[in-house]
Queue: 2 jobs
Job 1
Amino acid sequence: MSLNTDFDCSKFPFLPSLHFTFAIWLVVVQTINRRLEKKIEREKIMIDTLPALSVQILELAKDHGRITLSEIVKLTNANRNTVKKRLQSLTQANHLTQHGTGKGTWYLRS
């Protein structure tokens, strides 16, 4: 039995469009990869510059989605006033968005 190395492209007219589609897909994946690498780098810088409690609050907001002051105090065992200060600074730095006022206030990751 011999191996036939001749390939007749005319039998497969879809190959050029398939190659083109793959090339576009590859460019899109590379673009997404670069954006994610930049985002990871920004997050590393942010984590290095923020106090540990602030990083913990951001992680909680990411994991829980919507989070309140009371939930953060309960989950971190941190002082309520310290948590308030950290929430205020994270909100001012646009890391969190505050929704509502008073007892109904909750926060989301920006």
Note: The chain is about 65% helix and 5% strand.
Job 2
Amino acid sequence: MEILSNTKNGQQQNNLVKYEGVPITIEGEEWIIPALNIAQARQLRPQIEMLTSISIDSGLTDVQLDALITIIHAALIRNYPDLTKDVLETMLTLANIKRVISAIMGAGGFFANHN
């Protein structure tokens, strides 16, 4: 566990990060991205299975983007429960989404983590 004291989206955060994870910098702030828990993995199984057919480098459909956002949001709200999907969508870019999803899936042991 790690204590973070910084500003996220204009709001001061003094958080005890509840779950260990992979630190990733998004918009100049460090976020600790944990793995999905088992209940989340079961609930999100269709979206997780969709990841095998996604090639972020060759473009994403709206359905694929929604699946990625849903998985990323589920992981992040474990440590940042006030984070909304709307805010998350403004933070993520096509340049950082691959690192974030790799951190989540790598932390869960699904595939190697490539920051």
Note: Strands lie at 2-8, 11-17, 22-26, 29-33.
